[in-house]
Amino acid sequence: MSTARQRALARFGVPGQRRGRLIAFEGPDGSGKTTQRKLFKKWLETEGYDVVTTKWNSSDLIKPIIKSRKAAKSLGPEEFSLLHAADFRHRAEQVILPALWSGKLVIADRFLFTGLARDVARGLDLDWVLRLYQPLIWPDIVFYFSVTPATSKQRVTATRTPGFYEAGQDVTAHADPVESYKQFIERIIREYESLALIFNFITINAEQSIGDQHLAIRQLFRESEVRPWSHWNVDAFADWLVSTRGDR
Amino acid sequence: MSGRLIAIDGTVSAALHAAARALRADGYKGARLSEWDASRIFAELAEADDQSVPSARVLLLLYATDLAYRLKTEIRPALEDGRTVIATPYVRTALAFGRAAGLRGVWLHNLFSFAPPAHESHSITHEGPLAAPHHTGFVETASRFVGQAQRGLSHDRILQRTATFMKKMRQR
After folding, report:
1. For residue B168, is pLDDT > 70?
2. Residues within 8 A of A (CB atoms), B 97-116 only
3. CB B157: neighbour CB atoms within 10 A?
4. Does B47 reach chain A within 8 Å, measured CB to CB?
5. Which residues contact A146 (CB under 8 A, 6 or more apart)?
6. Residues of chain B found within 8 Å of residue A94, distances taken between Cβ atoms
7. Handedness of CA A8, A14, A19, A22 (dihedral sign)
8. Chain-wide mean pLDDT for chain B?
9. Predicted confidence band at B150 (pLDDT cuts at 50, 70, 90)?
10. How far apart are CA A117 and CA A190, in angstroms?
11. CATH of domain B4-171
């Protein structure tokens, strides 16, 4: 066994030992997950948790590269997928794993499942996309905010016109972004619902009131058990320790 | 696709350029040349305000993005027109660099499985200095980053290891 793996195992593989926690918020646009993430973070801080938030497509290094190509509408499905996987990996190495290593609670506003749902909706192979994200990091809890395609469309288009890639115009070839969104979000929600079954997400009915959802999340979090991390996460930490001298 | 794809891989970008030029002069006149960073991702990375250092895995995901762009805009259209394309570097360079950085072969092969196999492959080994001062290609650029980031791997060490993996791949 490598030294890095032994170190990761010593830190996280022992039952009962204090460790960081990773909570992911997933769901389609317009499902209200960002509102819930903010409420949850405030509540956790009042409970004494040291909380770090990470958002999808937000690394200072990769985000500008993605932004300029989205503006030029020049990304094909593979490029779109690979750039988001690069952004995720860089955030994992710079933000998520260091915070977990030092015992913090990380809330991810969208996690790798966003990449899976969107990329598969664009016609890419699930297995190929999932492997891009290896070594995998499994959250302690994934809250999936479930809404119908009609609700997502109604909430998103009430305040703005969806962007070119958000509306999936690169794959639907619809000139009208709202019509394209309607078609594309159905595909994304279908993929999310499959992922929710495969990966045991906790589904939150995001058609409920904001307050009811927040109370449900608190309750589910309180009831969740902190189990020793899987070998997947130990591998992810070992990889991070070697590739970035992460614990310097 | 009726054209012909020729891959030239290696660690020293100046040697890759020279090999591509020699091929074009010798029987492949009019061949389309497809080179690293046609998408300018790495040029933008070099100019980024953010000073965090990308790992080998992040660099390879970006290399794959650039290759997907080259396939979409340069390589596939030329092959569909029945032309010869000289791609330098192609997949082997990235595989060798990834292995040199300690990444698993199974992850690397999955990453590049979207790229069609070349009809003809050349691996250029170089006996001189491993990093040319005025040419910077993927391996030179990525080795500088990884030399800063990765425990136990200096810039020179990763260049040497990449060259060794290139030789091993050529022997297979």
Report:
1. yes
2. 101-102, 107, 110-111, 113-114
3. 15
4. no
5. A27, A31, A193, A196, A203, A204, A205, A206, A207
6. 52
7. positive
8. 91
9. confident
10. 8
11. 3.40.50.300
Q: Which of B97, B145, B151, B158 to mutate to test the interface with A (most CBs of A within 10 A)?
A: B151
Phi-psi region of A189 (alpha: psi -120 to 50; beta: other; left: phi over 0): alpha
Helix (H/G/I), strand (E/B), else coil: B35 = strand
What does the pLDDT average to over B76-103? 97
Q: How many CA atoms lie within 13 A of A42 on its CB side?
A: 7
**C-beta of residue A37 within 8 angstroms of C-beta of residue A111:** no
Chain A residues within an 8 Å CB radius of B47: none
pLDDT of A18 over the 80 cut: no
Using left for φ > 0, alpha for ψ between -120 and 50, and beta otherwise, residue A38 falls in: alpha
Distance CA A82, CA B62 (A): 7
Joined tokens for residue B34: 């497809």
Q: List all residues of chain B from 131 to 150 with a beta carbon under 8 Å from chain A.
A: 149-150
Is the per-residue pLDDT at B63 higher than 60?
yes
pLDDT in tens, A199-248: 999 999 999 999 999 999 999 999 987 777 888 888 999 999 988 865 55
B111 contacts in A (CB within 8 Å)?
Answer: 131-132
Helix, strand, coil % in chain B, rounded to nearest 5: 50, 10, 35
| pLDDT higher than threshold 70 for residue A14 | no
Cα four-point dihedral sign A34, A38, A39, A43: positive
DSSP string, A139-188: -SEEEEEE--HHHHHHHHHHH-PPPTTTTTHHHH--SSHHHHHHHHHHHH
Q: For residue B123, report the phi and psi dihedrals to the nearest 5 degrees.
A: -110, 120
Token pair in block for residue B65: 């993005």
Structure tokens of B137? Answer: 């290609």
Q: Which strands, in side-by-side order, build the sheet including B32-35?
A: B32-35, B84-88, B4-10, B120-124
Question: Domain boundaries in chain B?
Answer: 4-171
In this complex, do B149 and A132 lie within 8 Å of one another by their Cβ atoms? no
Alpha helices, DSSP H only, in chain A?
3-12, 33-46, 63-71, 77-91, 97-101, 112-121, 126-132, 149-159, 169-172, 177-198, 210-223, 231-244
The residue-averaged pLDDT of A129-152 equals 97
Complex-level ipTM beyond the 0.85 threshold:
yes
CATH class belonging to A20-238: alpha beta
Model pLDDT, residue A13: 66
